[in-house]
């Protein structure tokens, strides 16, 4: 009996040691998991939640801007660049360019349509371009909404109700006037097109790096705005009264 009791107590001690080892190993693994840094979601620029292709509309225009088809996007960029060089470099006039383009276009189609019967080929089919009433009403509705919002903002600024918006508009117009004095309207339009046509593609390619830099820049801008607000804008009576109300 004593030998069986000693044997049973030995087995119990072994089981206790095993349970203690399992408990210590599980607690250590839990502590290691707690020490591991949790992966945080990367913040997108301007709080964007959807992919850039979806933000740009997700259609053919987004495919062109993001250079999904490099040959098509490159051809459009080359064509716009040639037109800009014609106007800015050679000094071609817009009305002359339109008339010459229409002359070439009409001549090619006229000759092709008449020569097709002599070479036993079908004449070219000119595409029918018809604007539907729904499309025209949709465009008119969008333009009407934007124009009304612009007039509403101008009325508020001119009536002296919003000094902050007035100062912002003056600063923006002054900045645009400086740029306009340095470049011609055509060059400025081409530069805006070039930026709008290439920057989204570059942003999508280097999205993570740009988001980090952009977030830091936004934080710094907010800090500078708080400094300006505390030192300058808060001392203006009109703005200080609005903040109190």
UniProtKB/TrEMBL annotation:
Annotated region described as Disordered, given as residue ranges: 20-46
Keyword presence, Cell wall biogenesis/degradation: no
Pfam families: Reticulon
Biased composition (Basic residues): 37-46
Gene Ontology terms: cellular component: endoplasmic reticulum membrane
Membrane topology term: Multi-pass membrane protein
PROSITE patterns, alphabetized: RETICULON
Start and end residues of each Reticulon domain: 61-245
Primary location class: endoplasmic reticulum
GO biological process, any: response to bacterium
Keyword Endoplasmic reticulum attributed: yes
Localisation: Endoplasmic reticulum membrane
Keywords for the protein's UniProt record, in alphabetical order: Endoplasmic reticulum, Membrane, Transmembrane, Transmembrane helix
Transmembrane segments: 94-112, 166-199
InterPro entries membership: Reticulon (IPR003388), Reticulon-like (IPR045064)
Protein name: Reticulon-like protein
Organism name: Digitaria exilis
């Amino acid at each position: 009996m004593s030998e069986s009791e000693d044997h049973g107590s030995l087995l119990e001690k072994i089981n206790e040691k095993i349970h203690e080892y399992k408990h210590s190993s599980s607690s250590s693994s839990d502590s290691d998991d707690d020490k591991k840094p949790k992966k945080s979601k990367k913040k997108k620029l301007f709080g964007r939640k959807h992919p850039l292709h979806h933000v740009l509309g997700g259609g053919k225009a987004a495919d062109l801007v993001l250079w999904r088809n490099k040959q098509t996007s490159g051809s459009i960029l080359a064509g716009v660049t040639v037109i800009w060089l014609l106007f800015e470099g050679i000094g071609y006039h817009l009305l002359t360019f339109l008339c010459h383009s229409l002359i070439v276009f009409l001549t090619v189609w006229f000759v092709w349509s008449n020569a097709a019967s002599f070479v036993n080929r079908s004449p070219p089919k000119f595409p029918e371009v018809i604007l539907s009433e729904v499309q025209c009403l949709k465009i008119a509705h969008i333009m009407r909404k934007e124009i009304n919002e612009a007039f509403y903002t101008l009325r508020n600024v001119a009536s002296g109700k919003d000094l902050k918006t007035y100062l912002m508009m003056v600063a923006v117009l002054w900045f645009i006037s400086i740029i306009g004095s340095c470049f011609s309207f055509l060059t400025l339009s081409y530069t805006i097109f070039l930026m709008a046509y290439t920057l989204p593609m570059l942003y999508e390619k280097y999205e993570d790096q740009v988001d980090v830099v952009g977030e830091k820049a936004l934080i710094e801008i907010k800090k500078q705005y708080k400094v300006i607000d505390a030192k300058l804008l808060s001392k203006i009576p009109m703005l200080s009264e609005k903040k109190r109300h």
